Hints:
- This protein has 394 residues and is an alpha/beta fold.
- The protein folds into 2 domains: 4-251, Type I PLP-dependent aspartate aminotransferase-like (Major domain) (Aspartate Aminotransferase, domain 2), CATH 3.40.640.10; 253-392, Aspartate Aminotransferase, domain 1 (Alpha-Beta Complex), CATH 3.90.1150.
- It has 16 helices and 12 strands.
- The chain has helices at 4-10, 36-44, 58-70, 82-93, 108-120, 133-139, 162-171, 184-187, 221-234, 240-251, 253-271, 291-297, 312-322, 342-345, 352-357, 374-393; strands at residues 75-79, 99-103, 124-128, 144-150, 175-179, 197-201, 215-219, 277-281, 304-309, 327-328, 338-340, 364-368.
- It has a 7-stranded mixed beta sheet with strand order 1-7-6-5-4-2-3, with helices on both faces. Strands 8-9-12-11-10 form a 5-stranded mixed beta sheet.
- Helix 1 (4-10) runs antiparallel to helix 3 (58-70) and helix 4 (82-93) packs across helix 9.
- The model has no long low-confidence stretch (mean pLDDT 95).
- Residues 81-83, 107, 109, 150, 154, 179, 181-182, 201, 203-204, 213, 215 line the site of pyridoxal-5'-phosphate (PLP).
Amino acid sequence: MVGISTTVMHADRDVHPTRSVARPIYQPAAFGAEDSESFARAAVEPRGSDFYTRFGNPNHAHVAAVVAQLENTEAAMVMASGMAALTTTVLALVSAGDHVIGQRSTYGGTASLLLNLLPRLGVSTTQVDQTDVRAFEEAFTSQTRLVLLESPSNPSLQITDLRAVVDLARARGVLTAADNTFATPLNQRPTDHGIDLVWHSATKYLNGHSDVSAGVVAGSAELLDRIWEVSLLTGATLGPFDSWLLLRGLRTLPLRMARHNDNGQAIAEALQGHPAISRVHYPGLRSHPQHELAAAQMNGFGGVVAVELAAGFPAADAFVGHLQYARRSASLGGVESLAVHPASMWRGMLSDEQLVASGLPMGLVRVAAGTEDTADLVADVLAAADHVVEVDGR
Ligand SMILES: *Cc1c(COP(=O)(O)O)cnc(C)c1O
């Protein structure tokens, strides 16, 4: 197998080859067939790319080929957002009466799926402390069909022991799916630990330029066939041009992640011990309670750092407001630095109790380091933290 930087350039080489050096954009919503037989064949081919764009498109196929090779799976699929990938996947795998295990610290949309949508459809759910393997073990019932993992988790960067949970699930014939958005396949490959399905908000690092909303899911061809069938009904199709942009972003993923990893580590180290900050959450810090587990299952720790402001909600807001380079924004994973105060972001969708249950303390700020110069970003976060101390002192 070739290296990752070669993979992102060449994994899609044999998918709809043309003499064009950059991939063409296949804009049509539908493709013509030569005869009735090839028409009938194209209509039922899972993730085919020459029938109707909701069923598949060459630009989807290019991205899927790269993602499948990066995640070391047989197949992958592109969808209109990370949430489209998750919801379609879960609807493909569970039915009324089934049970799903998720994490307490998890992306807000995933939490809302577990807390609000699935129970309405007759699917029961349990959210557990991801740092406690025993909690997973105790959550399994005879109805459990799926375990949804996220490591590192958004936004508090807790780590799940992927291999330990896979062992529990496999012994019970239960599928595992991991949200690999924060790590990316550069920093962690969940299938190496036995995970069945890997999904991403490709809006974040995979695209990397904050200009596309997209999602992907990768796994065995058999599972992806089932997910594809449901995707025809959820209809969350990624547009061809956005797929083309996503492919362009993927070409530089290894280059970008190297800088994100450096910047995340430097910011975490700089803010650790600052008087304005009560806690820094970053798996690359030796002080992270799960640093050894993270180091064992990851190759790098990413660009997201979560910090807790000692003085709570107003201090968190002041810290974000004082940053010069990181704009206040809900996203992450782009070349530009962004920062957010998650407690204020999720208040519309999750109740205060659900916020606390999802691990979102009021003083928590998530800084997503971009690819700017490390020294400039470090100086910026230190100036913002100093500013919070000054305001507090007055
Ligand atoms: C953003 C995000 C999602 C949701 O993805 P969208 O592309 O916004 O639908 C899911 N998981 C994680 C970890 C995220 O950061």
